[in-house]
Each structure stands twice: as C-alpha cells, then as structure tokens.
Amino acid sequence: MGWRLALGFGLLMVLTLSALGLLSWQIRAMTQQTEQLATHDMQRLLRVQALSLYIEGSGNALLDLMNAPPEVRGSIYKSAQERKQRTDDLIAALALLMDDPVQEQTLLRLREHRAAFTSALLAMLNEMERNDAKAALRAFAGQVRPPLQRMLAESNALAQRERERLETQVANAQQGFEKWSLWVAVLSAAVALVALALAARTIRSVVGPMAQLEAAARRITAGDYTNPALEASTQEFARVGQALHTMAGTIAQREQEIERLAFRDPLTGLPNRTFLIQAMPQPEDPAAFQALIVFDLARLKSINETLGYSTGDALIKEVARRAQAVLHTDALSPEFASNPLLAHIEGGMFALYIEANGQAMVDQVRAQLADAMVQMVQCDGHRVDLHVFFGQAGAPPGQTLPMATMLRNAEVALNSARQSVTGFAWYSEAQEATRLSHLGLLSDLRMAAVVPQLQMWLQPKFSLRTGRAMGAEALVRWQHPQRGFITPNDFIPIAEQTGAVTLITDWMLGQAMRTLQRWQQSHPELSISVNVSTRDLQDPGFFQRVRSGLQERAINPDKLRLEIVESGLMQDAHASIVLMHRLTDLGVQLSIDDFGTGYSSLAYLQQLPVTELKIDRSFVTHIESRPGNRQLVRTMIEMGHGMGLLVTAEGVETTAERDCLRQLGCDVMQGYLTARPMFGAELQAWLDSLQKSPGA
User: Fold this and answer.
1) How far apart (Å, rounded) are the C-alpha atoms in residues 295 and 423?
2) Rg value, the chain, Cα
3) Nearest residue to 302 (alpha-carbon basis) of 103, 534, 501
4) Which of 244, 550, 603, 633 is deepest in the core (most CB within 10 A)?
C-alpha cells in the first residue's frame, strides 16, 4: 500500500507543482509587462501629453504678451523663457525614450517646426520692442502661427500614436493572460481528477482499516485493553494493529502500577487515604455495624526531630505490623462480618474499617490495638515507647455513610481523644459543634489581638518565707463581644495548634512590658511572668521582638520572666537552648513551667539557663495527705535548689498545702489561697495595699 500511496501522491504533487509553475511564470510575465507599462510606456505617454500642453500654452502666452503693456512684459518674457526650456527638455527626453521609427520621424518633424517657430518668434519680438504693434501682429499671423500649429499637430500625432501603442500592449497582455489561465485551469482540473482518484483509493484501502483502529483506540480509552484481532488489508495496518495491541497491554500494566502508587502507601504497603475515600468497596453486609477507628501515634514530630526520620519511619512500620497482627488473631478474626481494612492515612495516623456486630466489638478491637502498642520499640539503639490516641466513628444502624464522612467524623473524635484522659473517644454531634465553635473562635481570635478584646489578668506570687509579694504571673482572658467571657482552656489549645498563639504571646508581652514600665516608680520590686509557647520558641523573630520591647520602654529586663512549659522544651531542643541563652544574655529571667509533667532529664535541665522551677499544681493538691506526692515534691525542691534555682509551687489553695510546702523548703507560692487572678480596680487595690502591708 505504501508504494501505491507514494506514487499517487507523487503524481498529484507533479501536477500541482506544474500548475503552480505555470501560474508563477504567468504572474512573473504579467509583472514584467506591468512594470514596462508603468515605468516606460506610460511615462512616455505622459511626457508626450505634457509636450502638447506646453505647445498649446505657448500660443496662449504669445497672445498675452502681445496684449500686455510694455511695463509688464518682463515677467511674461521670463515665464515664456521657462516654458521654452521645459519644452526643450521634454523633446530631449522623448528622443531618448522613442523606440518606434514612426514616432522618431514625427518627433524629428516637430523639432524642425520648433526651430522655425523659434526664429519667427524672435522676429516678432523685435517688432514688439520697436513698439510696432501692427508689424508684430503681421509677424505673428504670417510667421509664428503656422509653425506653432504644425508643432501642435505633430505633438497630437505623437500622443495619439502613444495611446494606440499602449492599448495594443494592454490587449496583448490580456490575450496572454487568458491563454495561460486556460492552461492553469486544465492543469487544475487534472489535479482535481487525480486527487479524486487517490481519495477513492485511500477510502478503500485506508479508511476502513483506520475505522477498526479507531474503534480499538476508543476501547483502550474506555479502559478495555482486550483488543480483538484486526482485519487489516495491508501489512502496514497489520503492524499498526499489532503495535496497538502491544500498547494496550503495556498501558494495562502501567495503570496497575499507577493504581498501586496512587492507592498504596510506599512505607507500609497499606492502602492509603485516597483508596479509603475513592476506591473503598461497598459493604459486604449492609446489616452489619460499619465503624472506622482512626488511631494516631503521638509525639511523632518530636521523635523525627530528635532521633531522626528513619526512626520515625521504623515506628510507623512497627505500628502497622502490630495492628495487622491484631486483626489476624484467631480470637478476633471470626467476629468480623467481612475482612477488615487497615489503611495508612498520613504521618503516624492509621484508619481501620470494620463491619462488626455492634459498638462493643469495636471497643474490643480498639482495646486490643491499644494493648499491642504498650511494648516499647527498639529502633537504631533507642528504646521508644508508643503512645496512641483513638478516634472512633460509626454509621447509624441500617445506614451507610460515605467513607469521607466517616473519616472526618473519626478524625473529629480523634481530636477529642487527644484532650481526654482515656485517650479514645467515639464521635458525637457535640464534638462537631465544638469543632465548628473552635473554627469560629480561631477567626475571632486573630481580630481579638487587634481590637481590645483580650485582657491581661495578674495572679500574685508570694515568698513562703517572708510572705511578701515577689511578682505576678500574667494570665490572658478573652472578653468576646458575642460569646462573653471565654476561658483560656477554650481558646489557647486552638491557638497553639494553628500558630495563632504567637499573636497572643506578643500581645501579652506588650501588656506586661507596659505594666512594668509603670511599676518602675511605684513597685520596682515586682516582676511579671509571661507564658511562652513552643511555637514562640520556634519563631525566628521572637528574640528580636523581646529585645525591641525592652529597649523601647527602657525597663529592667530582670523583672520580665518568661515561663516555658517543660514538654515544649523537648521539641527542637537545640534551637530552644540557643534561644534561651540569647534571652538570658538580655537579662530576661526564665522559668520551667508545669515541672514534672514532661519527659526532660536532669542532664538536659542542667543545660538550660533558667532561674526558676515551677511545680505543677497536680503535685501540690492535697500534698499534706499524699505521702507519694510529698516525696516527689521534696525531690523536686531539692533538685531545684541543687541547681541554684528558685522553686515555686502552683495551685496552692489551702493553708495545709502552704504549711507543707514551707516545711519542704519551697521558696514561692502561687494560688487561690493568697490571691486569685486580678484585673482592673481589684488589681489596683491590691497594688495600693502593698504600700501599707508587708505581705499576705
């Protein structure tokens, strides 16, 4: 088929090129003729016509000269002389352009008449100079007019001859154009006939097989890669059909690989979030209770930053292995209505879909998963404990929820589980309402730091030895215009999760520094403690903002104390220590807040440039009746004193707690026993009382 198509197209190209060649040659010939007419013949005709006009004008000029008074003849002489010069120039130019013997003879006669006219004109002008008008008139009539008329006749003959020649050339060009147009039409008809024949042949030998190939391609597009054998009329189409069949098989293999990459997690080999939402099969037993358990490995970010991402990946794979082992236990497997599906969502988060006989069985599965995570993991020489939170969601009885909805509900429950003591939670509509409320609070919180909605309350701190006030801790409160008073427990966790806590910290620092500036005259002995979040420690601009605030207000930096939660120090520990040293170089005092609730070691604490240790209230409550807590607090106080730190107890609410702490050697107390957080007039009254009373 190939050589037939090539031959047909070759013939078509030859005819087409021939037609184009003839057309090009014709256009070129017409262009040359047009240029000849425009640049030579037409120019000659225009000069001949101009010569006739000048000759005719010469007669009129002589009449004007004869009738003009003597005083104006000078200008007429000058004009006549210029006209004579132009006439001579035209005759000379025409002599060079003439290529017709008849025209050359006519021009020669015109020159002879021109000479006779010039001689007679001089004689007439002499008579006019002698002021003999009659003699001049006789000379004009007898000697000047005859040669002038003959000149005019010869110039008209020249013009007529040129027009006839020009018309003849235009007619010849038209005839040539019509002749070549006929040739082009014949060749075009031949091209059309050959094209029709070639098209008919192509339809028979190409279009049919192409239709089969197109149908095969459409099947491939639709995802059907099992192409039947093609009935090809030529070897070429047979090869194309075979190539298409091979391509279909290759695409099928690649789609399988793409699907594996799209729906499988490369780290664990488990289905991923995309598979869970988009490719999850329909429930096998619609009557069964459909549930989704989402569980998340806590502190994965800290583990990655502290021990490396390879350790974090090893922990993720170990969690996946243990979860799969739980699902395949002999005691649990028969209880499932269908095969459970374990998926790796992201990071340390997994999802387990099961069809069970009720919530009790789901709780049983969750409990076994939790038990499987208790044993510590040995990774690259490190022993790491696994702490997992669980969020559970189920479809209402007799209903089937979209997997995306179940996953979202389980994640909402997971967020609630992170805040609970048990570490697990079932989804409820109340959680959804809380989540939406938190979203609204987050939007309002960004404005609250700009519009005066936040308030800085101060809770005094007193020396257990002297009873004198030593300073106060700054506590943020939010007076919402619609929701009223909002406690920190309702918005601080949201702010920490989203990063908005840095706005609160900056606002509180500004308020604390302004207060210290006012206290420099009235209460220079008091300090203010401001809580700093983990996000602030990771903010590269935090140090500069603290330094700028201190310099701007010219306050004593050792009266500003920054409280850092112990657990927050473990996240990016190196960067935290560097920042803390820079702050202490400014003179700022640092405290470890909620001591005893984190995981920091004594060796790590010794590296921190802190001056105060704050014991968490959970160890202080009922310390007088809890020997275990009392011993722990004693150890903390001795350890703090051993490192040269001031030890403060938080949450002191009874005199028994105060007396016990004083016996244990604690330095400072803070709590409702001595003073609640104060604001406004109440705070001012307390400050005024300090000038009258030595302590609480």
Assistant:
1) 10
2) 55
3) 534
4) 633
Question: CB neighbours (10 Å) of residue 449?
Answer: 20
CA torsion sign for 250, 253, 259, 260 is negative
Q: Which two tokens stand for residue 182?
A: 């006929």
Q: What are phi and psi of 336, to 5 degrees?
A: -80, 140
CB 623 within 8 A of CB 630: yes
Helix H or strand E encompassing 575: helix 573-586
∠ at Cα 551 (546, 552), nearest 5°? Answer: 100
Helix (H, G, I), strand (E, B) or coil at 98: coil
Place of tokens 């706005």: 503
DSSP secondary structure string for all residues of 242-270:
HHHHHHHHHHHHHHHHHHHHHHB-TTT-S
Q: What is the pTM of this model?
A: 0.51
Matching residue, tokens 């010939």: 29
- Distance (Å, whole) CA 291 – CA 288: 9
Q: What are the chain's domains? A: 8-184 (1.20.120.1730), 273-427 (3.30.70.270), 438-690 (3.20.20.450)
DSSP state, residue 396: P
Do the Cβ atoms of 638 and 667 come closer than 8 Å? no
Q: What does the DSSP assignment read for 457-519?
A: EEEEEEETTT--EEEEEEEEEEEETTTEEE-HHHHHHHHHHHTTHHHHHHHHHHHHHHHHHHH
CB 323 within 8 A of CB 342: yes
CB-CB contact of 524 with 466 (8 Å): no
- Residue 660 makes CB contacts below 8 A (sequence gap 6+) with 623, 624, 630
Contact yes or no for 340/354 (Cβ under 8 A): yes
Amino acid sitting at position 592: I
Look-up of token digits 């988009």: 278
**Structure-block tokens of residue 46:** 């225009």
* CA distances, 616 to each of 209, 457, 548 (Å): 84, 20, 32
Q: 693: pLDDT confidence band, cut at 50, 70 and 90?
A: very low
Instruction: Summarize pLDDT for 77-91 with one digit per residue, the tens.
Output: 777 777 777 777 777
Amino acid making up residue 20: L
The sign of the dihedral angle between the CA atoms of 120, 122, 125, 126 is negative
- The number of C-alpha atoms within 13 Å of 294 and in the hemisphere containing its C-beta is 29
DSSP category for residue 283: P
Torsion of CA 140, 141, 142, 145, to 10 degrees: 70
Q: How much of the chain exceeds pLDDT 90, in percent? A: 30
Strands 469-480, 484-486: pairing kind: antiparallel
Say which residue the tokens 């010219």 belong to: 554
Place of tokens 């790491």: 384
Alpha-carbon span 494 to 445, nearest angstrom: 10
Alpha carbon distance 689, 695 (integer Å): 9
Q: What are the backbone angles phi and psi of residue 342, rounded to the nearest 5°?
A: -105, 130
E-assigned strands of 533-596?
560-565, 589-595
Task: Tell which residue, 282, 374, 383, 277, has the closest CA to residue 326.
Answer: 374
With cut-offs at 50, 70 and 90, classify the pLDDT of residue 26.
Answer: low
Distance (Å, rounded) from C-alpha 431 to C-alpha 401?
18
Q: Alpha-carbon distance 116 to 144, whole Å?
A: 8
Residue type at position 467: G
Best CA proximity match to 400, nearest among 273, 284, 272: 284
Whether residue 635 has pLDDT greater than 60: yes
Question: Which amino acid would we find at residue 1?
Answer: M
